[in-house]
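Here is an idea for our session: we take a single protein and study its fold together. Which protein we use is up to you, so please pick one and set it down. Once you have written the record down, we can walk along the chain together:
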Amino acid sequence: MIELSTVIQQLRRELGAAVDAAASERLRFELGPIELEVTVAVTEEGGAQGKVKFWVVELGGDLKDTHATTQRIKLTLQPTVAGSSEPPHVSGTAGAGER
């Protein structure tokens, strides 16, 4: 399982690379709302400062040794570029090693 925050951080990196690639492209695509649907396992840690964590369940993931409840959640993310009121634009070009 992967923490939900890690999935969102990786998505941010990938989108950042696509925005960077768009700077030199003649044809770009405006980036609109992103819908991310994942199956998450919700775990709770006990103690004085108990925490609830959301873990993204990988395909074929096995929860047999974990006491968790799984739920499907859908997040709608509205990407923006810091310091800009313009919507971000991305390129359709894959980066090195991405095909």
Helices lie at 4-22. The chain has one domain: 2-90. Residues 2-90 form one domain.
